[in-house]
C-alpha cells in the first residue's frame, strides 16, 4: 500500500485509551507507524492550527464510547465537526454504544457516508475498513484529487507538533489489553509488544500470589499475542513473555471480583443507597432492602457467600480486614432484611466478629449510623 505522511488519526476519550493503544498496534504494519496518531479529545484546544493539522489525516477513526458521548461539551462538538471531514473518510468504532444516533444529534456528521464498525467485530474487520479508506485516500492524492477543503492542504506539520497538542504514541514496551479482568471469566487478553518481536515459540507465564501458569498464546502477528486469561483470585498477576524459553518482558493484569467491582462503583457514588435505588428502580430504602435480599436469596451459593468467611480466623475473635464483608455493608446502610439473610450463611459468626479497617464490627457499624433495630438484631446473634 502506498503511504502518506499522515494516514490515520484515532480520536478517543480517556476511558477508551486502552482501545486506542490496541488499535494502534493492530494497524501498525499495514499502515506506517509514523503515520498513525492517537488523540485524546480531552486535550482539544481552540487553536485553528490544531484543527487544520488533525483534519489533514487521510482516515479519522473515532472511538465512540459512553464517556465520549457524555463528555461532548460545546468545544469538543465543534472540534469533531471540524475534523471529521469528509464523512466518507470517517470510521466510527461503536464501543459500548449501540448506534450512531446519539452522536448525530450532537455533531453535524453525515451518518450515511461514514463507515461503522463495532467493538464486537474481529480485528481484521477494523483493519480492512480503515486500510481501505487509507488506500482510496492515497489513490486520490496521487491523482491530485482534492479530497479536503483547500485551506487544509497547506497545513502540514511535524508529528512532534501533534504530540504537543495531545497526540501520543505507545511508550511502554508491553501493554495488556484489557488490563483488568473479572475473576473466573476466561476473558480474551491481548499482549501488545512495542519493540520486541514474538516468535512462534512464545509463551506467557501468569504468576499470582500462590499460583503460576504458563500458557501458549495465539500469535496474531509478531507483536500481538492473544490468550484467554487463566482463572486467578482477585489481585494483581504478573505476566511474563517468554521467547525461546527465556523471560523477556513483563506486564501485569488486575483480577477483580464482581463484589469488588460493585464496591468500587458504590464508593464513587455520592450516595450509594440513592445510586442503588435508581439502578433497581426502587422508591425507598425499605423497598431496596427487600429487593436486595430477594436477589441475594435467589443467587445464594450452596455454601453461602465467601465474603462472610475469614480464613484461619477463630470464631469470636476480633480481627481486622482490609475490606468489609457484605454484612458490614448491610450494617452501614441499615439493610435489615439483607443482614437477616446473611446471618443464616456459613461464616456469619466470623463476619460478626471481624472489624473493618476502622476497627468496627457490623454491630458497632449499625449503632454508629443510627440503625437501632439492626444493631439489636446483630447483638442478639453474637
TrEMBL record:
Gene Ontology molecular functions: protein tyrosine kinase binding; signaling receptor binding
Family annotation (Gene3D superfamilies): Ankyrin repeat-containing domain, Toll/interleukin-1 receptor homology (TIR) domain
Family matches, as SUPFAM superfamilies: Ankyrin repeat (SSF48403)
Source organism, top-level taxon: Eukaryota
GO biological process, one term: negative regulation of B cell activation
All residue ranges annotated as the DBB domain in the record: 176-308
UniProt xrefs under PROSITE patterns: DBB (PS51376)
InterPro entries: Ankyrin_rpt-contain_sf (IPR036770), B-cell_PI3K-Signaling_Adptrs (IPR052446), DBB_domain (IPR017893), PIK3AP1_TIR (IPR041340), Toll_tir_struct_dom_sf (IPR035897)
Keyword Chaperone tagged: no
Transmembrane domains' residue ranges: none
Keywords: ANK repeat, B-cell activation, Phosphoprotein, Repeat
Subunit details: Interacts with LYN, ITPR1 and ITPR2.
Function comment: Involved in B-cell receptor (BCR)-induced Ca(2+) mobilization from intracellular stores. Promotes Lyn-mediated phosphorylation of IP3 receptors 1 and 2.
PANTHER family registered for this protein in UniProt: B-CELL SCAFFOLD PROTEIN WITH ANKYRIN REPEATS, BANK1/PIK3AP1 FAMILY MEMBER
Name of the protein described by the UniProt record: B-cell scaffold protein with ankyrin repeats
The species this protein was found in: Etheostoma spectabile
Taxonomic classification: Eukaryota, Metazoa, Chordata, Craniata, Vertebrata
